[in-house]
Amino acid sequence: METVITLFSPEWMNAWQASINSSSEYKNHGRKWKEPLILKFSDGLPEIENCTGFWLDLSEGTCREIRYANQEDEKDTPTILSAEYEVWQNLIKTGKDPLFLLMKGTISLEKGSLLKLTSQRKAAKALLQAASSVIEFDSESESVPQASDKKEQAVKTNGSKGGRSEFKTTTQGLDFDSFPMQLFQKAKQLGIWNPSEIDFSKDKEQWGNFTDLEKTVLMHLTGMFVAGEEAVTLDLLPLIMTVAEEGRIEEEMFLTSFLWEEAKHTEFFARFLKEVTGQQINMEHFHGPAYKALFYQELHEALERLKRDRSPESQLKASITYNMIVEGTLAETGYEAYYRMLTENDMLPGLREGVGHLKRDESRHIAFGLYFIKRLVATNPELQDVLENEAGRLLDKAIDVVNEIFEPYPEMPFGLDKGWYIEYASNQFSKRIAKLLSE
Ligand SMILES: [Fe+2]
Ligand SMILES: [Fe+2]
């Protein structure tokens, strides 16, 4: 279960340790490292008294402990890497290669052997990536970054009529620090999973033991998810075309991974249906009127409109429908509930593994959506009303979808609880709206 964790908090350290220990990259590349290490904040960690950084007890590809370091620890810890708070924060957020920053002098080696560290480059990277993956789900809970930086401006374009007047890479240069580029880096590191390699053998065994009601509910939920993933795969292109036409290359680059991921999500659930349930039946009866109104109509129309109207208002409505409602309210809540259900009932491990990956992919998509909406509203403040009205209108429809799921089942199996769904979806929604409207 993933929850929002504050960066550098004790919970975050625990999650980081767990993430290191489940990283096959670290297990593989870190097996030669057998001693503790300190990652030091040269300017301290303001909230924690006497804390100089993190003390990591690393041994042969595993991490035995992570805790706050103090000055005493420095005496008998053989390797100490030091950098400013912001450097570590940035490194963890972007998952960049720490050795490169060491070579540049942004990180300094206070104690230890540079040669040894250099030979452990891949281990160091895996360690930081494990940290980065912990905050993955948190990326959109932080303040949504501003898109007002000059470098992030799109290049001039003459549209289809007059050809292009310039390229960003050969005038201003790509903005590697922009939020979409950070998400793109994350997508390349964390979005690499292959739906066709998920092992469904245990799922197949377990499927035969479910009752008819349990099978129906699993088919019902999966039938909503798979069509939802197909819908977002089919409907994203007009948004990609829009940012491309505006010359927003960084956003388009991230959206290439976004679309690829939606395609993989579709493949994943389709494979589950085919190989685990063993039947490809017509599942349309699982799509009630509220589901159809959102997934067959609203989503399609909001994105399709961009083909003829690329005004900021039209873009805003498309992103609210796609990112805030379909992904940020329905998919996120649906997958969180599905993941919890699979974990708590210890069942369908292949499905659970895939849903785990999917949740992380979706968190990047939602983060992009919030960034995108914020950019539009910042440059067109008059759109704030549209944001409130449209999001509110669609939230009602999303809640109708949740109600519709539970309607046919007086007794829902696997501990699924409608109250939990509604509360989680509403909380996530209001948290984001508050963030978008307050800044
Ligand atoms: Fe998806
Ligand atoms: Fe998505």
Q: Assess the beta-strand content as a share of residues.
A: 5-15%
| Low-confidence spans | 137-143, 148-152
Give the topology string: H per helix, E per strand: HHEEEHEHHEHHHHHHHHHHHHH
Number of domains: 2
Structure annotation, total helices: 18
* Rg computed from alpha carbons, rounded to a whole number of angstroms: 23 Å
- Average pLDDT rating: 87
With strands numbered from the N-terminus, the spatial order across the biggest sheet is 3-2-1-4-5
Helix content, binned percent: 55-70%
Task: Identify the CATH architecture of the largest domain.
Answer: Orthogonal Bundle
Strand count, sense and closure of the main sheet? 5 strands, mixed
Spatial gap, N to C terminus:
29 Å
Structural class: alpha+beta
**CATH level 3 topology of the largest domain:** Ribonucleotide Reductase, subunit A
Total strand segments: 5
The distinct bound ligands, ions and cofactors come out as: fe (ii) ion
Summarize the structure.
The protein has 439 residues and is α+β, with helices and mostly antiparallel strands. The chain is 61% helix and 7% strand.
Q: Can you put this structure into words, describing what you see?
A:
The chain has 2 domains: 10-138, 2-Layer Sandwich (Nonspecific Lipid-transfer Protein, Chain A); 154-438, Orthogonal Bundle (Ribonucleotide Reductase, subunit A), CATH 1.10.620.20. The chain is 61% helix and 7% strand. The protein has helices at 10-21, 24-29, 71-75, 85-94, 98-104, 114-119, 121-134, 159-162, 179-190, 201-207, 212-235, 237-245, 249-277, 289-304, 312-344, 349-379, 384-406, 418-438, and strands at 37-41, 53-59, 62-69, 79-83, 108-111. Strands 3-2-1-4-5 form a 5-stranded mixed sheet. The chain is globular, with a radius of gyration of 23 Å. Bound molecules: fe (ii) ion (2 copies). Residues 229, 232, 262, 265, 362 line the site of one fe (ii) ion.
